[in-house]
Amino acid sequence: MKSIKGIVFDFGGVISAAHDDTFWAKALALTGWDRDTIWAGWRKHRYLLDADFVTPQGLYHLIGQDLGTSLDGKTLDLLAEMDYDSWAVPNPETLAWARELKDAGYKIGILTNMPTSFIPWFNRAAAEFRALVDAEVISGEEHIVKPDPAIYSLMAARMDLNPNELCFFDDMEANVTAAQACGWQAVHFTTVAEAKTAFAALLG
């Protein structure tokens, strides 16, 4: 049996629900862009937001700039608010599982790519989850973004555990692979049911 003592969760798409069709319908109608364009822009520029180097308005300005288009300030403000609102939807199944893990004696942590401007939404969406948490690392506060190995080292230090005593759940495969390279156990998160099955397999 692997000696896992701490469970660390990503926020977006794990503690919170993923973007739903309501967000996409509004965003595409507002910008005239397609979904693939926004995904490509996020992949290219989102680390700047998560490291607190640009605002959410700045992120969408960069995406538009890549397309040779310019969005006005009101549109950028609406996009920023819609983006943040879409992440602030808690996943009750993850919360219930985290409570089970806490009751079983595991330390609980949050390791998330998140700008500091999102923290009011984070406080609202994750208040019950954060009540369980022993340590957290927010990328915007540290100016370090997953999958940088430094952010995993910082999280392990705050959890006061060795990397091989930690298990990480993230919905982005690159972040899971990076955690594994740092000596963590890590699982690509899709649903709580699948995460539970994968975790049980890790425990043997």
Can you characterise this structure?
The chain has 204 residues and is an alpha/beta fold. It folds into two domains: 6-16 and 89-203, Rossmann fold (3-Layer(aba) Sandwich), CATH 3.40.50; 21-87, no CATH class. Helix content is 58%, strand content 11%. It contains eleven helices and five strands, in the order βααααααβαβααβαβα. The chain has helices at 11-15, 21-31, 35-50, 56-66, 73-87, 92-103, 119-130, 139-142, 149-159, 173-181, 192-203, and strands at 6-9, 107-112, 135-138, 166-170, 185-188. It has a five-stranded parallel β-sheet, with helices on both faces. Helix 10 links the parallel strand 4 (166-170) and strand 5 (185-188). Helix 3 packs across helix 4 (56-66). The radius of gyration is 17 Å and the shape is elongated. The protein starts with 5 loop residues before the first strand and ends with a helix. The relative contact order is 0.18. The model has no long low-confidence stretch (mean pLDDT 96).
What number of domains?
2
> How many strands, what sense, and barrel or not for the largest sheet?
5 strands, parallel
Q: Can you give the mean pLDDT? A: 96
Rg computed from alpha carbons, rounded to a whole number of angstroms: 17 Å
The 3D shape can be described as elongated
CATH architecture of the largest domain: 3-Layer(aba) Sandwich
Give the ordered list of helices and strands: EHHHHHHEHEHHEHEH
The portion of residues assigned to helices is 55-70%
Structural class: alpha/beta
As for the CATH topology of the largest domain, it is Rossmann fold
Q: How far is the first residue's CA from the last residue's CA? A: 5 Å
* Total strand segments: 5
Going across the major beta sheet, what is the strand order? 3-2-1-4-5
